[in-house]
Design brief:
The chain is of the alpha+beta class. Helix content is 35%, strand content 10%. It has a domain of 57 residues. It has three helices and two strands, in the order αββαα.
């Protein structure tokens, strides 16, 4: 009977040994049929939707979001106009994607 108790203790200890282990990492996102992960869509505009200036002509573009639409402005000076009607400028980006 001593062997049965020892075996039960050994099995219990083995089962508990994994309790403090780190969880397994999440699996990678699925890839398209080609095998490579899908690249984010390129930004569709070369110019600021507020001023019409070329993006990058005044330094790095200012990136803002309206809902799930990223809008890039040529400079911080365009933020006031964007904030006054963000849906208008997000719609311009959305239309350019089509």
């Amino acid at each position: 009977m001593g062997n049965g108790i020892a075996a039960a203790l050994l099995l219990s200890a083995a089962a508990l040994a994994g309790c403090g282990a780190e969880p397994a990492p999440a699996p990678p996102p699925p890839t398209p049929a080609g095998g490579a992960p899908a690249a984010p869509a390129a930004y569709p505009l070369d110019t600021c939707p507020v001023s019409g200036e070329k993006l990058g002509s005044m330094g790095d573009p200012v990136v803002v979001k309206h809902g799930d639409v990223e809008v890039r402005l040529c400079c911080r000076g365009c933020l006031k106009a964007f904030d006054a009607d963000p849906a208008k400028y997000a719609a311009m980006v959305t239309a350019a994607r089509k």
